[in-house]
Specification:
- There is one protein chain.
- The N and C termini lie far apart (about 45 Å).
- The chain is an alpha+beta fold.
- The strands form three sheets. It has a six-stranded antiparallel β-sheet. Strands 4-9-6-7 form a four-stranded antiparallel β-sheet, with no helix packed on it.
- The chain is about 25% helix and about 25% strand.
- It is built from six helices and twelve strands.
- Keywords: Iron, Metal-binding, Oxidoreductase, Vitamin C.
- It comes from Trifolium subterraneum.
């Protein structure tokens, strides 16, 4: 974890010309994207961050510089997959399902994994800007590590709550696909990134989800006794819905949620 954060800072500190080959082309399925804000071509307001986004599964992609970055990125992505798999098995059992039910039905073992490295420089007027707006994540589980500088807030009982970083720990957030597959039992977490005017914050996020071509909706076993709260949708299609909704203050889950009148 420490080595990956160190190498991530080294990547962001590379000259602009060296990072240019990884420039963001606007395609969320590009193997490697580096840029600023969230999606500048479609934004009214830009966000105070630089990012590196990498698709690390089912095919592993990663920058070849700085030296050693790709190797530690590969090791970390594989270790996180093991942790995610174990947690999803436990969640399956808590829902009354077989331990591998969600793993097998979602194609998890050949599923999508995205790594995002966010750098938030000191902001002269942090109360007037955001690092990232309020959103929930795609996928089943999101794993976060950070460089000891706080900035993550989660929505809890209608209020924004600081999640202060603990040394050598993983913060795990529930994603939209887990809310859908559990038919609402596991609620995805609204969160955002705030800024400060003193320290550079680095957060490293790994999102583990289904295979892109799999349709994800409430587990059929749960629907034997209850109505579905969500429609089924291919993960790749949901991914695109979520990218657009993050620019409009909408929740992507609302696009697949059945209304209470139905």
């Amino acid at each position: 974890m420490e080595e990956l954060l160190t190498k991530s800072r080294e990547f962001h500190d590379l000259p602009v010309e060296e990072k240019a080959e990884f420039g963001d082309n606007g395609d969320p399925f590009s193997p490697i994207r580096h840029g600023t804000s969230f999606h500048p071509p479609a934004e009214d307001v830009h966000y105070w961050r630089d990012f590196l986004k990498v698709l690390t599964s089912p095919v592993f992609n990663f920058p070849h510089k700085p030296p050693g970055y790709r190797e530690v990125g590969f090791e970390y992505s594989r270790e996180i997959t093991v942790v995610a798999r174990k947690l999803i098995q436990g969640i399956s059992e808590s829902l009354g399902l077989e331990s591998n039910s969600i793993i097998d039905s979602s194609g998890f073992d050949s599923g999508s994994q995205i790594m995002a490295v966010n750098l938030y420089p000191p902001c002269p007027q942090p109360h007037l800007a955001l690092g990232l707006p309020s959103h929930s994540d795609v996928g089943f589980l999101t794993f976060l590590i950070q460089n000891g500088i706080g900035g993550l807030q989660v929505k809890h009982e209608g209020k924004w709550v600081n999640v202060n970083p603990l040394p050598n720990s993983l913060v795990v957030n529930i994603g939209d696909q887990l809310e859908a597959v559990s038919n609402g039992r596991y609620a995805s977490v609204l969160h955002r990134a705030i800024l400060n005017n003193k320290d550079t914050r680095i957060s490293l996020v790994v999102v583990n989800g289904p295979a892109l071509d799999k349709e994800i909706g409430p587990a059929p076993e749960l629907l034997e006794k209850e109505k579905p709260l969500f429609k089924s949708i291919k993960y790749c299609d949901y991914f695109l819905v979520q990218q657009k909704s993050r620019l409009s203050d909408e929740r992507a889950l609302d696009h697949i949620r059945f209304s209470s009148q139905q």
